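pasting for the record
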Amino acid sequence: MNKLIISLAAAILSLPVAADEGMWLLPLLKGQKFPEMQALGLKLQDYDIYSPDSASLKDAVVIFGGGCTGEIVSPEGLLLTNHHCGYGCIQRHSTLEHDYLTDGFWAMSRDQELPNPGMTVTFIDKIEDVTNYVKKELEKDTDPNSMNFLSPKFLNGLAKAKVGEKFLQDNPGTEVEIKAFYGGNQYFMFTKKIYSDIRLVGAPPSSIGKFGADTDNWMWPRHTGDFSVFRVYAGAGNKPAAYSKDNKPYQPKYVAEVSLQGYQDKDYAMTIGFPGSTDRYLCSWGVQQRIEDSNKPRIEVRGIKQAIWKDAMLKSDEVRIKYASKYAGSSNYWKNSIGMNKGLANLKVIDRKREEEAAFAAWVAQDAKRKEVYGDVLSLLEKGYTSSSEYKKISTYLGEAFLSGAEIVKLARMIQSVDVKGSTPEEIDIFLEDNIKSFFKDYDASLDRKVLAAMMKIVKERVPAENLPDIYKKVDKKYKGDYEKYAADVFKKTSILSYDNIASMLKDPKKYAKLKKDPAAELSLSVLISLFELQQLTGDSYYDIAKGERLYFAGLKEMHPEKAFASDANFTMRVSYGSIGGYRPYDAAWYDYYTTQKGIFEKENPESDEFWVQPEILNLIRSKDFGQYANKDGELQLCFLSNNDITGGNSGSPVFDKNARLIGLAFDGNWEAMSGDIAFEPDLQRTISVDIRYVLYMIDKWGKCPRLIEELKLVK
């Protein structure tokens, strides 16, 4: 039987809360969950995990880039994360001559470690409950329809006001951020220290780091060595600094110990990371919208785009290198959407949500005060989601086709966003270097032309005529529905496919003014106007939803004051805990909790781009020279399962044992529980992690980098 984070039906309420369910804020652990964590096997105290005043385990866990997690594993700033998290960096350093995607990369000395402009690593210095402060400021807001209680701009303004400009000026690289939790019922401020000199140290070849690729993505059993190695560098005083050859390796507050002892079935397992987004309290109408108006259009549009990309990538190594990272990112969320829709249907989540809503309505009806406060909650939610559903679907089609699909639209949008008259020449140069140059490095115009034609066609077929961008009237009149001809003309006549042209345009306001007539800019502007109009049409709906969800959660908490509630993920540091263990995916089948090197040989296929492995790697593994990385049976364990509660953003998260020693890196969830962001299913939901011993084996034996092993605090 399914156990949701919050269960309102009486039959579900009678069951104990699963100890492995929820992503928990570190400062609240002591009051919410710590006794259960210790009962499950944890040997630490709460202050060992999080302490506002001294070094603790949280100081070893970082945000890697803008959407992953990493962990510090040496006194010299060495960092581990997933291969797919470092993939963009690996790809950007790859060329036909030095194909690090195919061959891997290993820095044999510090001076060979490769810088990555634009990459950052973020440490969380402090987490503070600022609920009272925020609510006092919100009371000053006289607009009854204000969305400030959820507005990042408003909340971050409050954060800066709270610490003061002097604090930020005196602490370069430090940022503060206030985030809303529980639908805007509680607020925490995060003080972050951001390092920007991050260098690539090592990465296995994609045949290891992406073994199984799309076919195995979200699947178990898994045999993927999904890891990469970076190093954080710091300036004088160990402070954040821009890249310089004079920077030194960062000296961390806390270094995660690395275990060679392995794990057994039912052993304690804990992750700390930055889960991106969950909607565990989503109402039935919200689930329906997610299925029909978000996931289905995304699946369709990305499927078309990815097929075009894949065909080109298989025909050209140059295109493959350029589009490898883009394809992986697009495909990951595409398959996630497919699995989510299937899981939500199989687990009858909408029906269960309706039962919960009926139980809530019955509780509200029992008391006049409750009716006064919560009587309109469900009607607000129903109205908000149903009135916005069609507009949501249209927005998804337009966004997926043009903002995430045809790249020339993205390029035009970037150029259109520049304040040419208000920017200094230096600012223009920085924009060109950071945005335009990097865009062209991984861009193929002839491929994008094919994508644009396909995107124009699918939008015309799926979006009602009255909601189509105005550009369609012109295109249909001139080209008679021949979108391939239109796309060819756009790419022939546009002036923005040249870096030099763009640079000249941005540095000359008169030339920039002519951009309005550029066909790519014309398309981009038309799409943006349509999306803006849709946003205006849904404004009231989104206010109803936000207000309804805020009150709904407050009501749930009042309804069950004895319960500990985990806030939905919002890319803030969280702990999840549970146990090592397998699961039953379907009738008459059982999946064991770990895989070994045997699986590589069972899956390896020289005819497949997803399962091909270099013969020399196969020979290395076949020799069984596993040394200290072998288990007691002489096998090399590759990946393992635990029932930790994670989601996107947790990629690269450390998996710790009961002594807070690193045993693996989380990198995926399992297909049977793809609905987990909305409905947690303890019997099915599993975290897939790469075994740290496999990571170290590849670094040591294949990468031939024992220098890195020597940096670690190994526990044998």
